[in-house]
Design brief:
- By secondary structure, this protein is an alpha/beta fold.
- 33% of the residues lie in helices and 22% in strands.
- The chain has 2 domains: 182 residues, Glucose Oxidase, domain 1, CATH 3.50.30; 48 residues, no CATH class.
- Strands 1, 2, 3, 4, 6, 8, 11 and 12 form an 8-stranded mixed beta sheet that branches. Strands 5-7 form a two-stranded parallel sheet. Strands 9-10 form a two-stranded antiparallel sheet.
- Helix 1 packs parallel to helix 6 and helix 2 crosses helix 6.
- The termini are far apart.
- It holds the Pfam family RraA-like.
Length: 246
């Protein structure tokens, strides 16, 4: 019924590495690479303690027009494009939804989210809301979104429009196959072309921060250890070598 483009999925080692770096470090390093603001604004963490990184499957909503999308939710179930986004889910994927910041229409409910969890989906990043919150939050899924609603997805002013096309989610451009990194600080979009370089730069950043955190916890000089001053580099390298031999 619909010709949905596929995405290329990066190696799990790359995704695991980016998840470990976290959004704060990744955002800072992307800024240095020329990506000024990768943050998906409005997609608030609702799964505290979860940190994920996965390729983006995108879903775009548009303002509802009744001649294109009627009121009966199940009159033609295959017309529901939000289902088709889920049909393409593989383990570790992240569904990213441009729901136009709408606070009324629950983009997915318990049954759709159960299906997503069953296919191994890692998380949902939605510039909007979901429904069936109590049962949805019991699933092992990461949620970054604006909130919840009792309404179903087309009940008010929205209709699904396209799957796996470039979207604007929370003011950020997201292409299908870009990597979403999300944790307690929120969700960011990593352009796939930057991912390998980000992993290298972010891993180094995270490592010297580990050293600096230890030194600061011992009362070390903030001017020397954060950010790491050039004259502290030898001290850091000695610490790093010691860790590798432990």
């Amino acid at each position: 019924m619909f010709d949905i483009p596929t995405i290329n999925r990066p190696a799990k080692t790359l995704l695991d590495g980016l998840a470990g770096i976290g959004t704060a470090t990744a955002s800072s390093e992307l800024y240095k690479m020329g990506i000024r603001n990768p943050f998906i604004a409005g997609a608030v963490p609702h799964s505290r303690g979860k940190a994920i990184a996965g390729p983006a499957l995108t879903l775009q909503f548009m303002p509802k027009r009744e001649d294109l999308y009627g009121d009966d939710e199940y009159a033609d179930r295959e017309k529901q494009l939000h289902r088709h986004a889920l049909y393409h889910v593989e383990a570790g994927d992240v569904v990213v939804v441009d729901a136009r910041g709408d606070m009324q229409s629950g983009i997915f409910g318990e049954m759709m989210l159960t299906y997503f969890a069953g296919k191994g989906g890692a998380g949902m990043v939605i510039d909007g809301v979901i429904r069936d919150a109590a049962k949805a939050f019991a699933l092992d899924i990461g949620y970054w979104m604006r909130g919840t609603s009792p309404n179903f997805h087309t009940q008010t002013t929205l209709m699904p429009h396209a799957v796996n096309v470039p979207i604007a989610c929370g003011g950020t451009y997201v292409r299908p196959g870009d990597i979403i990194v999300a944790d307690d600080d929120g969700a960011i979009c990593v352009p796939i072309a930057y991912a390998e370089r980000l992993l290298e730069a972010g891993s180094h950043h995270a490592e010297w921060e580990d050293f600096s955190r230890i030194m600061l916890s011992k009362g070390g000089d903030l001017r020397r250890y954060y950010p790491l001053a050039q004259d502290a580099e030898a001290e850091y390298l000695a610490w790093k070598a010691e860790q590798q031999h432990d």
